[in-house]
C-alpha cells in the first residue's frame, strides 16, 4: 500500500534515484541525462525547503522504497505568499498505480492546513496522462505557454494549471 509523508534529509539518495528515472520520460523540465543531482546537496535542499512552513518535499513510498515525490515551493513576498509551485515525479515502474493521486491528495490537505490558497504547475501540453491526473485532482488549465520548451529541435507548448484551495 502506498503511503505519503514529508521527506527527511536521509531520503535524499532514494529521491534522487526517482528524479533520475522520472527525467527519462522526456516529460520533465530536464532532459534525460542533462543533470546529475548530488544526494548530499539534495539532502541540504530538503532541510532548506522545510525551513519555510509553506514549502516541502513529500514522498510516496511502499515499505523502504520511495516511488514518487512532490515538491511544493512557496516564496516569501507578501503578495505571493498564498501560493506555491509544485513539481511531481513518479518512478516509471509505478506510473498508473495511484502514486500521483496519493501524493496530490496528501499535499492538497497539507496545503490547506498551512494556509496556502493556490497551487500552480506547468505541464507539457502533449503529456495527456499528466494533464488527466491534474484535472482529476481539481487543477484547471489557465493558459498556454506557447513554444515554451525546445525538445528534440521542436518547440513545445506547456499548460499553466492551477488549483484554488
Summarize the structure.
With 165 residues, the chain is α+β, with helices and mostly antiparallel strands. It is 28% helix and 36% strand. Strands 1-2-3-4-5-7-6 form a seven-stranded mixed sheet.
Task: Write a structural description.
With 165 residues, the chain is an alpha+beta fold. Helices cover 28% and strands 36% of the residues. The chain contains four helices and seven strands; from the N terminus they run βααβββαβαββ. It has helices spanning 12-23, 39-49, 99-113, 128-136, and strands spanning 3-6, 56-62, 65-74, 83-90, 118-124, 140-151, 154-164. It has a seven-stranded mixed beta sheet with strand order 1-2-3-4-5-7-6. Strand 4 (83-90), helix 3 and strand 5 form a beta-alpha-beta unit.
Keywords:
single chain; 165 residues; alpha+beta; 7-stranded mixed beta sheet; 4 helices; 28% helix; globular
Amino acid at each position: 500500500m502506498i503511503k505519503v509523508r514529508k521527506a527527511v534529509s536521509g531520503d535524499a539518495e532514494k529521491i534522487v534515484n526517482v528524479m533520475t528515472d522520472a527525467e527519462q520520460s522526456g516529460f520533465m523540465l530536464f532532459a534525460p541525462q542533462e543533470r546529475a543531482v548530488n544526494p548530499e546537496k539534495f539532502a541540504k535542499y530538503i532541510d532548506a525547503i522545510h525551513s519555510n512552513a509553506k514549502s516541502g518535499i513529500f514522498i510516496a513510498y511502499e515499505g523502504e522504497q520511495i516511488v514518487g515525490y512532490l515538491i511544493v515551493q512557496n516564496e516569501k513576498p507578501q503578495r505571493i505568499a498564498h501560493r506555491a509551485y509544485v513539481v511531481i515525479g513518479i518512478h516509471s515502474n509505478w506510473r498508473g498505480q495511484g502514486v500521483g493521486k496519493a501524493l496530490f491528495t496528501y499535499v492538497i490537505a497539507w496545503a490547506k492546513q498551512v494556509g496556502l490558497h493556490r497551487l500552480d504547475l506547468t505541464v507539457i501540453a502533449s503529456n495527456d496522462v499528466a494533464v488527466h491526473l491534474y484535472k482529476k485532482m481539481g487543477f484547471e488549465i489557465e493558459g498556454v505557454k506557447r513554444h515554451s520548451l525546445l525538445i528534440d529541435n521542436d518547440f513545445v507548448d506547456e499548460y499553466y494549471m492551477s488549483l484554488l484551495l
